[in-house]
Amino acid sequence: MAQTSAADQALIKDIASSYVRSRPWPYRRWIESIGIPIHRGYYIEDLRTVELGWWAERECNAAFLEMAGSEGISETRVTEVGPGKTLPPLKFALDEVVYVVEGRGLTSIWGPGETESKTFEWQKFSMFLIPRGHTHQFTNTQGDKPARLLHYNCLPLVMATVADPAFYFDSAHEEPGLPNVVGEDFYSPAIAAQIPDPKLAWGVRDLWFGNFFPDMRAWDKLAAMTMRGVGTRAVYVQFPGSEMAAHMSVFPARTYKKAHRHGPAFVIVIPTGDGYSIMWEEGKEKVVFPWKESSLFVPPNRWFHQHFNVGESSARYLAFHPPVQFEGWAEKVEDRVKDQIEFPDEDPFVRQKFEEELAKKGLTSLMPEQVYTDKDYQLPESPGG
Question: pTM of the predicted model, to two decimals?
């Protein structure tokens, strides 16, 4: 075997020194370099009070939420806009969903080559899309209190292929053929459509297409979602021209939903409600945690999870979806037995704990007794949530 020359050895050393495919992965290295809080674990008790830190480049307080179940796939972060402040313009290469945790304000947005921006107003519980390749700017229109925004995108996933953060922020790159989505109607009210979906027991999926939803707490255009439990209703959201999607589930007071499981990185935030959830990997110990308005959690990949409303009014949870290849198969009818636990088959601990939690509040369960004997029992459909 020929010996490696000194020149070749030097070249190999240079190549090795530039090798970056290592842990922590690129996104994690980047967020750790920013110097603001990174919150980890299974859930955030309250997004309105979670600790933030000063992000000098963005001129705001912020924090990253790298929750168990979303690592390496989705980014979730909180941004705070100070009273009466306007943040610097930011161009981002990816689609991003924004949910307003607290406050009122404006977003100005403009696309590549555009000289005039489109501006729209938002309030607490609003949800909207910032389209890829566009520049946007947030303004807090309240002079006496900060506004808090929750952001959801897929930066960790794509940064695993192109590790340079500059590629995604304020880059000169402009996507060829990107439609001018910031037109007159881009942030107008959403429209509804029924999409055939043979994977679902009811045959169609009701979708709302839109880029701006003014108040998810008040949204009342809901369809029955009987597969998940008694009295459950839901809305599914698709953002036009984007792979980003979401859904919101609404279920009655003093009831709970069936345990189910799916893929990773479904980030769930609570617009309204008083309850708790249980999550567990099959055959392992259960994790139990409470939630209320502005709580956030992420069920880890293929973990069963189950949601309980112990309040005296309906509860809502809003779920941001990962890319479709990560969604899992819990919605498929043929996998119902594998990915969903029917009420008669659940661990007795589930019902017992629910009734104990209600008793602490002087309440009793409104779950019909029939659900524990008849897997297909459903309450008569009732309006709204």
Answer: 0.89
